Amino acid sequence: MKRRVFFTVLALVVAFELGGEMAYAQNISAEIGFPFVAGGKEMASGKYTVRVTEDRERMVVLMGPGGLQVIMPVITTLGRHDQDPDAEFVFDKVDGKAVLSEVWMPRKDGLLLVASKGRHEHAVVGGSNPKK
Questions:
Q1: pLDDT computed for residue 39 by the predictor
Q2: N or C: less crowded end of the chain, CB within 10 Å?
Q3: Model pLDDT for residues 21-74, shown as the tens digit of each residue
């Protein structure tokens, strides 16, 4: 009986630990070749990684050079508008600056981070169909 209780508790602990790890979707990385703005902060060009939390408070965590980290809330989910299944970073060009506005994880819908008002152009990093 004690053995059964021990293994049940052990299974619950392992499931809890794995569940915490599974709360994060896969990471995507890209070399961003230009300065940009993310979460209201100026970012230098360099290699950046995105992790998306999948908990109640859905957030995008952007990690950059030197341990830099910016957390941005997800405004809404965007339906995939093309057949490109690859990861993408989408930037809105606003007032001469590139603003990280969308993140697309592989084979998933996009995540809107910034809703730019007015006319703007997009710059896309990643994906197999960058001319959207």
A1: 92
A2: N
A3: 444 457 899 999 999 999 999 999 999 999 988 776 688 899 998 888 999 999
Q: Are 73 and 58 in contact (CB under 8 A)?
A: yes
Query: How wide is the angle at C-alpha 124 spanned by C-alphas 118 and 130, nearest 5°?
Result: 120
Domain count, the chain: 1
Question: From its phi and psi, is residue 79 left (phi > 0), alpha (psi between -120 and 50) or beta?
Answer: beta
In a domain, 15, yes or no: no
The rounded distance, in Å, linking the Cα atoms of 35 and 93 is 11
> Does 9 fall in a domain?
no
Q: Residue 111: which domain range?
A: 25-126
Average pLDDT on 103-128 reads 86
Q: Is residue 20 part of a domain?
A: no
Is position 18 within any domain?
no
